[in-house]
Amino acid sequence: MIVDASVASTAQAVTSVAPTAVTPQAPLGTWRYTLHLPHSPLAPSVARATVRTVLRAHGPIELTDRAELLVSELASNAYRYARGPASLRISWRAGVLRISVRDSSPQFPDPPGVGEWDLTGESGRGLRLVSECSDAWDCYRLTGRGRQARGSGKVVWCELTA
Question: What is the Cα–Cα distance from 94 to 125, expressed in whole angstroms?
């Protein structure tokens, strides 16, 4: 699925990926979906709906709650810290679900905090949640060279193992 929605049509994109009654299938083979996210506060919601729909269709359904939390954090960070659109990639291979968000900001996120969480702060918990709830996560800078880079920015990814 490739969705390229402008801010004006984000609500329509949400509707087009809204969950339907889908009989879950056993996760077979390898698959990958890419969703282009406009720079909009609605982007994390669209990303969550997309992950939910894809996992209901392909499985494994037991990863849905954690995957929604993780994609929400990654898409929210892309909206908050980058000034342009982002893209979400969801892929399945060899029992591993990978969620990655590419944005236009070359600045790496601060590593998750060590010690106690600041429960009253406005930020600082997102990547800690990603670190705690995923089986692996990292980020890499795009250099503007190569087939996949297509400009500068970064990719932040996480994985869940079934």
Answer: 30
Distance of CA 64 to CAs 55, 76, 77, 91, Å? 6, 18, 20, 13
- Over its C-alpha atoms, the chain yields an Rg (Å, rounded) of 15
Angle of the 64-81 helix axis to the 126-133 helix axis, nearest 10: 150
Alpha helices, DSSP H only, in 35-113? 43-58, 64-81
> Where do the domains of the chain lie, and which CATH numbers do they carry?
2-6+27-112+123-161 (3.30.565.10)
pTM of the model: 0.76
pLDDT along the chain (162 residues), means of 10: 42 42 58 96 97 94 96 95 95 96 87 60 74 94 65 91 94
Coil vs helix vs strand at 56: helix
Integer Cα distance of 126 and 79 in angstroms: 13
